[in-house]
Amino acid sequence: MPEIPRQWRHPREFRIARPATPEEWAAALLRAVARSEPVPAPGDQPVNPAPAGTLAQPAVAELATGLWRLRRRLSGPAPSPGARDGARDGGGAADLRRARRQFESLWSTLAAAGVEIQEHDQTRYDSGLDLQVLEFQQTEGLTDETVLETLRPSVYLHGLRVQTGEVVVGVPMTRDEDG
User: Fold this and answer.
1) What pTM does this model have?
2) 36: alpha, beta or left, given left = phi > 0 and alpha = psi -120 to 50?
3) 77, 133, 151, 160 — which has fewest CB within 10 A?
4) 75-94 pLDDT, tens per residue?
């Protein structure tokens, strides 16, 4: 007695239809094979190819990271008017103020374009966070795991992550109960 296919044992409404390839797909596949177009490897394609005239996600991440690093430098204390660099060029403090204004303008332009740059310094660390931890350091005075330093910020473009943050996490000191 011949073997009956398993699906035929069930009512018609429970049977899975045979997979059908639309004729357009088959024709396109045959044309591609005839032209012997190379099929790109997964790593060869950008994460999210951008339309002409817009920035690709890696470029946005790189720009955002560079501006974030510059912002951290510029947010430090302004040099005194008699500082070495200011004395040499005569306008160090004014140049620094001008650079800060230009920087803030660029920062707000990125924000208006849908780029969000997230710094993680001094935030409570949880293993469920989407961060790349480069090092765990035992640190005195901590009660919970805390991000001590952000080395690269998390960058989002229109709510989609384009760069994962890299951080150093501080962990509370362990008490040595033997000594």
Assistant:
1) 0.55
2) left
3) 77
4) 766 555 555 544 445 567 88
Which residues make Cβ contacts (< 8 Å) with residue 150, sequence separation at least 6?
A: 119, 120, 121, 165, 166, 167
pLDDT at position 133 is 95
For residue 58 the two structure tokens come to 């890696």
Q: Which residue has the tokens 């001590």?
A: 148
> Residue 150 burial (CB < 10 Å; 0-12/13-18/19+)?
buried
Note the helical H segments in 12-141. 23-35, 57-74, 84-89, 92-112
DSSP secondary structure code for residue 96 in this structure: H
pLDDT of amino acid 17: 66
Position 103 confidence tier, pLDDT thresholds 50, 70, 90: confident
Element (H, E) at 54: none
Amino acid at 6: R
CA distance 84 to 99: 18
Higher model confidence: residue 63 or residue 128?
Answer: 128
